[in-house]
């Protein structure tokens, strides 16, 4: 079974995002960029499925600017077999990404597509669900456990009240939650080896997909800032404050 | 404009997040509801009483029993022939279903809106809430999820909606529900609690959550939350996690105990009315957003605090 893993290049999760003065967006100039953390988890899961003999080939895909090559090389260094970069210098929205991925799915016929549950830049949390709709496949979102059994996959999902398990017919779409696994670091020899793994370059036009955005960002602003308050000297003072707030007797 | 709101319900009751979604939807026009599930006649009757609600569409059947998106999305798409917007609360179910609906309608979803600026313009958080985007949708129909903490709850009583049964295509045959492990607790639910006490990695184990965090929560009638680090380490179940990728909360009082204040955690709680932080490191970033801070060792100060309340 082939596994397809879409990976997005995003601001590194350790960086505090800064809104540009002119309100046009977040300043990404000279900011460290990395693979979306949920996508690292997706790559790791695919590799584990391959190590178990369930997956036969892992294909990483990214849609974005030419620099997204670096993100794909990271996926290859972790253990993906080959990569596809769909180059677009303008940002592609989740709906456009899902349409492009649907075309890749039609070409590659993967048994599983494993995406992140959300990209930490747009925080949309929708691409996987959209891809599932467009391909008519079942979806196991927010996965914390994935078990392939014959032609079904059992997915344990993180839901509001706890955990839920669903059984999906393969081919299926999965999105990862934080506790699915802990992604490995790529070793130096694997980083070297990754440089010679195949990486195909495409454009949205090659797939005949119109990726014109449907949402127009009119403005980006900073959220209201919280002021740091006071420090109390001891427990007595804190207890008094809680009583004053009316939450304790 | 006619909007269709997905009703999140549990144990026969409409959940609070739905009431916030109704308020958001009412800013767009006429509000209709969709109650899908198995044996949900009572839920539909309760939903029809929500203030400002028109028609309540009810899809009752085994296929809708566990909100499987493969079965629910086509049902919504059918109803969208006569609605202009689909609105769902940004709960685990809402986030699972709405994008599937959006793609089937060829619409780009607007996720987790914070406000309705006009019929096509909304604000939403991005970058873990560090950047608020104002976005305008050019799609003919809108698909929207709503951040519950950003909207008042519609009143549960006062409406007189009419209930109408709908039959969808039923089971798509793609997925099935196997089981659930739902945490049971006598405490208030995290997303609707007035007071929350959250613990972080500093708690060291689940035993300390029981002996240190819970007694304080009991005194304050509070829900218990946690940082990702505490959940990952297995001190508490996953549904306790507050943050960018956990639950979004905005209680009257949020008490963060042994939590450093990473941006991903702040994303989930910084709209709380009063934030109280207890941390032994006076430089911890949590103090930059806390209204009241106490620098100290939680193992000493929290039991002392609990005993003094
Ligand atoms: C993609 C992604 C998503 C994430 N989503 C979330 C999310 O939704 N929610 C979330 O919380 N995190 C999230 N995180 C993780 C986040 O980055 C932090 O790692 C996490 O919040 C840290 O948890 P913590 O504050 O409990 O632990 P730490 O950062 O280790 O902080 C522990 C704190 O306890 C204090 N302390 C230690 N001992 C004591 C003591 N005896 N008394 C008092 N204080 C003490 C320390 O001074 C320190 O400040 C996410 C990360 C990523 C990459
Ligand atoms: N430009 C992209 N390239 C590759 N994968 C993407 C892209 N955008 C989103 N994805 C995938 O979709 C997931 C969810 O993203 P989102 O819906 O934007 O929150 C991500 O974790 C990725 O797996």
TrEMBL record, chain A:
Instruction: List the InterPro entries hit by this protein, alphabetically.
Output: ET-Flavoprotein_bsu_CS, ETF_a/b_N, ETF_b, ETF_beta_N, Rossmann-like_a/b/a_fold
One of the record's GO molecular function terms = electron transfer activity
* Cofactor annotation: AMP
Tell me which residues make up the Electron transfer flavoprotein alpha/beta-subunit N-terminal domain. Answer: 23-211
Q: Does the keyword Electron transport apply?
A: yes
PROSITE patterns for this protein: ETF_BETA
Give the family per the record. Answer: Belongs to the ETF beta-subunit/FixA family.
Q: How does it assemble?
A: Heterodimer of an alpha and a beta subunit.
* The protein, known as: Electron transfer flavoprotein subunit beta
Automatic annotation (TrEMBL), chain B:
Q: How does it assemble?
A: Heterodimer of an alpha and a beta subunit.
Name of this protein: Electron transfer flavoprotein subunit alpha
Annotated function: The electron transfer flavoprotein serves as a specific electron acceptor for other dehydrogenases. It transfers the electrons to the main respiratory chain via ETF-ubiquinone oxidoreductase (ETF dehydrogenase).
The family database entries (PANTHER family) matched by this protein are listed as: ELECTRON TRANSFER FLAVOPROTEIN ALPHA, ELECTRON TRANSFER FLAVOPROTEIN SUBUNIT ALPHA, MITOCHONDRIAL
Cofactor(s) this protein requires? FAD
Protein family per UniProt? Belongs to the ETF alpha-subunit/FixB family.
- Any Gene Ontology biological process: fatty acid beta-oxidation using acyl-CoA dehydrogenase
Which Pfam families does the protein's record reference? ETF, ETF_alpha
Molecular function terms, GO-annotated: electron transfer activity; flavin adenine dinucleotide binding
Q: Which organism is it from?
A: Rhizorhabdus histidinilytica
Question: What SMART domains does the entry give?
Answer: ETF (SM00893)
User: Source organism's superkingdom?
Assistant: Bacteria
Q: What does the entry list as the binding residues for FAD?
A: 201, 227-228, 241-245, 258-265, 279
Q: Which InterPro entries match?
A: DHS-like_NAD/FAD-binding_dom, ETF_a/b_N, ETF_a/FixB, ETF_alpha_N, ETF_asu_C, Rossmann-like_a/b/a_fold
Task: Tell me which UniProt keywords the record has, alphabetically.
Answer: Electron transport, FAD, Flavoprotein, Transport
The annotation note on the cofactor reads: Binds 1 FAD per dimer.
**Domain Electron transfer flavoprotein alpha/beta-subunit N-terminal span(s) in chain numbering:** 3-181
